[in-house]
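Quick illustration for those who missed Monday's session on complexes.
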Amino acid sequence: MPDAHETQLAPFVNRILHGDCRTVLTQLPDACVDLIITSPPYADQRKHVYGGVHPDHYVEWFLPIAAELKRVLKPTGSFVLNIKERVVNGERHTYVLELILAMRQQGWLWTEEYLWHKKNCYPGKWPNRFRDAWERLLHFTKQKQFKMFQEAVMAPMGEWRHERLKKLGANDLHRFNSRAGSGFGKRVANWIGREYAYPTNVLHMATECYNRYHAATFPVELPAWFIKLFTEPGDLVLDPFMGSGTTAIACIRNDRRYIGIELVEEYVRLAEERIAREQASPNLYTFAENGVAYES
Ligand SMILES: C[S@@+](CC[C@H](N)C(=O)[O-])C[C@H]1O[C@@H](n2cnc3c(N)ncnc32)[C@H](O)[C@@H]1O
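Prediction with S-adenosylmethionine bound:
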């Protein structure tokens, strides 16, 4: 018998909700989501497509959404915000930095910043800067103790280690502290027999353009990485700016449940088409909601 909380959630789970997240979010119960991962519209960037927000007004636009996200996130949950400040009048605008400060004022902890290195960034040349090959993934939490499963994202140790471990010197056999006095040290001999290592906070992933109708998609492996790191199978993941459904696809492939919100109907259909193609490998946690229609 599902508990009252699950019954309240059921109409939203494993669905893309068509609407403005500023209103749709208010319908979700408190503390129901384990992870929020999203890439909101970039300031002014795609005004012609889905309504941009002027960089000078970005913080005031986003803060009420952040407040709702904080309400629906469980105390042990995480919020990963993919964002990058754009260039305005020849310099980087400061709205992302201002947003971080304002969200801290709102009660969020700015726990970490991950960096997505876009291995195949756009070619180009500018007089005052190089090609932009990275984006921020800001990690916010509600408290210092949150769910995190570091083993789930361990990466294979690279072939280079065989060569390095062939000839171990004296400094490799005991803990060797950095000569710079940083307090960091390592014992290289510990790597013998190790197949996997913990990753860094830099993710090297190529961009993907899933569909020519939605240019601003992120690669499935990006939300998938954070889903594995911050949730367990069956947990609930929210993307309030779902776009073409990438977060939902990552959830289905990793046996997590999802709630997506998307303003543009065309993108909702695109996401649904994409999701329908994934169902051959069924999501074990899909709720049977036959006949339940969500009114946006
Ligand atoms: C950067 S895209 C997200 C792309 C997505 N990560 C993907 O992989 O397809 C931002 C999306 O937010 C949607 N959007 C903009 N304002 C919105 C709002 N107020 N509520 C819900 N969705 C909104 C846009 O239509 C757009 O599809």
